[in-house]
Amino acid sequence: MFLPLLYNNVVWSITDNMSPDGVRAYALMIEAGVSLDRFGELCGVKVGSVRAAFSSGRLSKAMRGVLHEMANGLQVDRMVEEAKKEDEHEEETGERMGRVYAIPGNKYLRLVEFKDGSHGKFRTKVGKFGVGSEAKLVEGVNGMWDVVGDYDRRSRLREG
Known about the structure:
Number of helices: 5
CATH class of the largest domain: Mainly Alpha
Strand order of the largest sheet: 1-2-3-5-4
Strand content: 15-25%
Distance between the termini: 34 Å
Largest sheet: 5 strands, mixed, barrel
Structural class: alpha+beta
Low-confidence stretches: 1-7
Radius of gyration: 25 Å
């Protein structure tokens, strides 16, 4: 508990005299776990040049490219973590989100596709859950799915 406080004090003392671009770049490097030495190697410049560029806010094209790649990598990592959390939640509760892709001749049925590419169907009232709507479903009997949750008249899931 003491280390993050010390860490934040160190970061603030380093970024006190930096330009706003340098502060953002340094924060991105910390989040990605990349040191100044490694960042300098990736950009092909010395560590002193990296510090000077961060202080003045004059980042070279190579530095901006490396920072852009790091930001993209972090964004992909966050998306993967969120997807894993959703999958874990689905496994625990048995609830899955499905998107309606067709309304067959039976106007009470809806055909849905789940995120993993599998398909299912569920019964509902006429006029609810048009094509493109998303529904939270739990597996029922005979290959049918049951709708879970409270929906408004426009087939939107009410939170709470």
